[in-house]
Structures are given as structure tokens and as C-alpha cells.
Write a structure and sequence with these properties.
Layout: E1 2-5, E2 15-19, E3 27-30, H1 40-53, H2 71-81, E4 89-90, H3 91-97, H4 103-111, E5 124-125, H5 137-146
Parallel strand pairs: 4-5
Antiparallel strand pairs: 1-2, 2-3
């Protein structure tokens, strides 16, 4: 397993990126760990994420290792990826699109999303409010604001 701690980025701060093969990402999370020296692959990831968080890109193109996902998680993430930049969908709307009533399971899949930002779980909201976000509601609100959407609490 290869790990890199990226320099601080707008809105999200430092990110920890893990890769099994040095060519695809297997997990992204926030961290307070010390920044590490980046390989060319991790430099490319950093540049892509920075461009998105600077408002220069609306979609992230980073190769991912999806082998650890359950089939249901993969289905939720695939549906989540369809949410356009600057828009939100409720957990219920995701469930309807997936032809399921497993709202709680969808919420769990969003909360355990190993690819924050790439699969935009911040674009999934509750029917009557912001819903949850594993990285805090302030970050969720700030990410949506970056995309031009104002979150009502």
C-alpha cells in the first residue's frame, strides 16, 4: 500500500490518499498528518483535486481502484456520480433512481464513500435539510457553495 499526504487544499485541508498499485486510488480521507513527498502519480492527483477546489474543473478524472466496494456501494456511487456539478439530490431521489427503498443503506454507502470529491457525496442531501456528511456539514456546505449551490439548513 502506498500512501501520500497532500499539501493543504482549499475547503478540505490535507488529504490522505492511498493506492495499492501506485496507478489508482483506493481511498481518500481528510487528515492532519504531515505532508509527504509526492510521486508523479500523487502529484497528478493533487493537481486534479486542486483544480476542482479552485473552481477550475467541474469533474475529477482520477483512476480509482473499486475492488473493495460491495456491489451495492458501487451502485450507489455510480448513481451519485450522475448528480451534475452544482446540483443536489435527496437520498430518496437516489433510491428511486436505483429502484430501491433502502434509504438507510444508501445513507451508509454515502457516509462510507472511500472516494470523497470524486464521487460527490456532498451533493446528496436529506429531504428536509442538509443530511449528513462524514467530513462535517461546514465542509459539505462549502463544497456546494464552490459549485454555486447554497445549502439551506
Amino acid at each position: 500500500m502506498m500512501t501520500a499526504i497532500l499539501p493543504a487544499l482549499p475547503i478540505v485541508g490535507k488529504l490522505k490518499i492511498e493506492s495499492r498499485d501506485g496507478k489508482t486510488i483506493s481511498h481518500i480521507s481528510t487528515t492532519k498528518e504531515k505532508t509527504t513527498q509526492l510521486t508523479p502519480f500523487f502529484e497528478d492527483c493533487y493537481r486534479e483535486l486542486k483544480n476542482y477546489l479552485d473552481g477550475k474543473k467541474t469533474d475529477l478524472e482520477i483512476p480509482l481502484d473499486m475492488t473493495e466496494l460491495t456491489p451495492f456501494q458501487a451502485k450507489v456511487l455510480k448513481e451519485m456520480k450522475k448528480i451534475p456539478y452544482g446540483e443536489v439530490r435527496s437520498y430518496g431521489e437516489l433510491a428511486k433512481a436505483m429502484k430501491t427503498k433502502a434509504f438507510q443503506a444508501i445513507g451508509n454507502a454515502c457516509g462510507n464513500n472511500p472516494f470523497m470529491l470524486i464521487y460527490p457525496c456532498h451533493r446528496v442531501v436529506g429531504t428536509n435539510g442538509p443530511g449528513g456528511f462524514a467530513h462535517g456539514l461546514k465542509m459539505k456546505s462549502d463544497l456546494l457553495k464552490l459549485e454555486g449551490f447554497t445549502l439551506r439548513s
